[in-house]
Structure of Phenylalanine 4-monooxygenase:
Amino acid sequence: MTPGQGAENRVQEQSTVASDPYYEARRAEIAAMSDRCGPDDPIPTIEYTEQEHEVWRLVCGKLAAHHRSDAAIEYLDAAECLAIPQEGVPQLRDVSRRIESLSGFRFRSAPALVPFRQFCSGLADSAFHSTQYLRHPATPFYTADPDMLHDVIGHGNALASKRFARLYRLAGEAAERAESEAAVQFIAKVFWFTLECGLLRERGMLKAYGATIVSSYGELSHFRDAEIRPLNLKSLADVDYDISTYQKILFEADSMNQLEDIVGSFWETCDDNTIEALLAEPVC
Ligand SMILES: [Fe+2]
């Protein structure tokens, strides 16, 4: 699927959702339960419908085959430890408990995409905001907005890895330190091109670890069609992104160690001044 087809999928998804009052009402019902849930409250229990279980089964089944060939080892090993149920939608509270036992991270229930500063405040506290509703059953392999499949299969599996969990926590702490809007936007951009859409090389093969790619059957099938650039913070600064469609440009680390060296070190030490200086550097 090409970036252009990603945009077409979004149009189809929007019209499908808008023309289905039952789905809209169901999603609003689940979102309202999340909305009533405070940060320290237990994650709500959702009685998922058979149709929602079927969407979960269908997507997990399709992704599993791709993960074996296209996902990074650190992600695959963490997913194996976490062992998210494939046969039906698990309770977010149960997955959260299991992740916490593996890496110290946990989920917080969210009604929708939360503002980046709020999202990062959670990460700094080792908490990831996750939705609990699922995408529309007519578009099981595509969603522009985060849903529970994206949040749990994409981010949850990664968060079961102590190495990825540390990167998420460092991103949150970096955003909490940042005061200028330019600094926060740059931290968000680094997050997008790494923990959402990042690639790394293993034994010469390009593999995905970013949550947006590993939770999307379409993106897993076609991420190698993008223009792939070496991971470099300065060159990443000069690329725009649109979260509503497939990325035309992606960045690859040459290993998990390099990802931690470049991005982990950046998030660990950055502030408004260092980011301003980085953005002012000439492009090589
Ligand atoms: Fe995400």
Observations:
- The chain has one domain: 3-280.
- The longest strand covers residues 249-253.
